[in-house]
Structure formats: structure tokens, C-alpha cells
Specification:
The protein is an alpha+beta fold. It has one helix spanning 4-16; strands spanning 21-25, 28-34, 40-43, 48-50, 59-63, 80-81.
């Protein structure tokens, strides 16, 4: 479980990332970080997780510059924040 405040911090860190880096949850790219009352993330697969259901150990950074193998999902240029 994570808090809304954690998602706000994650969103702010995301704004500082170079274009070739992005957040993933498990092995799927996060395309939206919602920091409103809902506090959730949405993945490229369409799955959505509320903050209370997010396992922090599944969050990680992915870099296309360092990737040596292909990924199941296509990287997008930015993560939407609402």
C-alpha cells in the first residue's frame, strides 16, 4: 500500500526523468499517475490500481537506453498526471 502523497512525489520525479526513462509496475509501463482524490496509476494494458492496492516493490524505473532485450509494451513519451 502506498499513499496519495507518495504518488504526488512519484509524479514530480517523473517530470524530471529523461525521455528514455519511465516508471513501470511489474513489467508494464505506467501511462498515468492520478494524484487527485482517487490516487491511482494506470498501465498501458488498461489496468488501473488505486494507491491502497499498489505494491511498492513492483514499482521500478525502466530505461530504453539500457535495455538489452525487448519489452512486451511499447514505451510512450510521457506519463499523464491528473
Amino acid at each position: 500500500m502506498i499513499t496519495r502523497q507518495f504518488l504526488v512525489a512519484l509524479s514530480r520525479m517523473n517530470a524530471l526523468l529523461p525521455e528514455q526513462m519511465y516508471w513501470v509496475y511489474g513489467d508494464t509501463e505506467i501511462i498515468e499517475i492520478s494524484t487527485d482524490i482517487e490516487a491511482s496509476i494506470e498501465l498501458t494494458s488498461g489496468a488501473r490500481f488505486n494507491a491502497v492496492n499498489i505494491d511498492i516493490e513492483k514499482l521500478s524505473l525502466y530505461s530504453t537506453a539500457l535495455a538489452s532485450s525487448h519489452r512486451a509494451t511499447s514505451p510512450s513519451k510521457s506519463i499523464g498526471v491528473s
